[in-house]
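COURSE: Structural Biology Practicum
ASSIGNMENT: Worksheet 4, Part C
STUDENT ID: 0417
INSTRUCTIONS: Below are two proteins. For each, the amino acid sequence is given first, followed by its structure token string. Answer the questions at the end about the second protein only.

PROTEIN I
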Amino acid sequence: YKVEKNSRLNGVDSLNTLYEGSGGVTQANISTGIKIKNFSVGLSTGYTFGSKDYSTQLNFISDSVIYYKSNTATKTRFGGTFLNAGMQYDIFTKKKALIRLGAYANFQQNLNARRDNINETINYDGNGGFINIDTVSSTADVKGKVKLPATYGIGFTYSDKHLVFGADVEMTNWDTYRYYDQKDLVQNSITFRTGAQYYPAKDNTPASKYWSFVKYRAGLYYGSDYVKLDD
């Protein structure tokens, strides 16, 4: 993201603030599963790694006073193992329909992290970047932890020759999220999803009836966002 904000500080001057951030998470995994009669279980494990970079640049705008521009930046690199698990059970009805019950869990991750911080005065160059004038404070390679929350879900599907219907609910415990023992503006989230598919064609439907061979689908979901804004 890149967000620019212009404001007026009473008794001071106009202030231009630039917020920038980038980063993401990547996973390398190995997975396996096993089926015993109508019961199936699967596991996925591997390594999570990524980065989180963000900065704030302040620029006071004045006709009479010259202020140094400032930049406060934090760069974090993190990595660690993860474990996900799932299971499902198949139920066959007398009318040859299939009811499938499922549950899964993405367990909490405790990632090892290293963080760099810098507070500096800067000046902009002619290429849209900036150059350092003076470093006010700087720390490098500070060790810490990043905790990613656990996610749990349960659901089911019903399917026969013409109809597929399913629903599930997913919960993520964002209250446990920590970045160097600090909370963030996040909250526990829960999402409900449901969807259906209808396939009208029968065994004796002529191929010329095109619309009978179309699979009609619809679905919806409802839930709370994990980002917490304005309480």
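PROTEIN II
(use this one for the questions)
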Amino acid sequence: LEVDHLDEPDVVARQLAESKTPCVTSSFQAECVVLVHMLRDVMPDIPVLFLDTVHHFPQTIAYRDALASRWGLNLVTLRAAEPAPGLWREDTKACCGKHKVEPLFGALANHDVWFTGLRRGQSASRAGLEEVEPFRLPNGTVLRKVSPLAGWSTKEVWAYAKAHDIPLLPLYDLGYTSVGCEPCTTLPVDPGNDRSGRWQGQKLECGIHIQSEG
């Protein structure tokens, strides 16, 4: 296994031991799935939060359902109270806010530790990512955000998946390197930026990883 960061399972176990109400967010991309695999070895019933934006690729939903069934995941699907299909045509920020940021931040208020599959190498906006850092929600709640794969490369993520016989999202086989909502995901335009195929280059983040300044 060509992975240099072999201590991550220990990091995961330690953070879980120090948490009363942990959760992990998963878009069912490679990093998320690798992280969920690590977490379920220690806590099989950890809540896996999935944002149903009503704009996902059909392949993403089918893959999510198949893997959740195969692994017996405690899948928690989050959805906007009043979804607005097509809002992305008018304002991608407003669309992400309604379908991703608001439902997730509402759910995170019930947890003390939030595990993410973020990596520093995914884009310039994530270059300064810490493995463990405080995260403040708009309501003032502060939780611990843990990104065990922060220092991993794409190659290491895929090597872990291969070594553990983890099937990955079929959309990767079509050339996608970062998969979000179908209308706002295209093939990458910059080979050096995994997320360059998101939002037609208008932005690199949806907003869920940007904390309140309050």
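ANSWER KEY EXCERPT:
Q1: The beta strands are 22-25, 47-51, 74-78, 113-115, 132-136, 142-146.
Q2: The chain has a mean pLDDT of 86.
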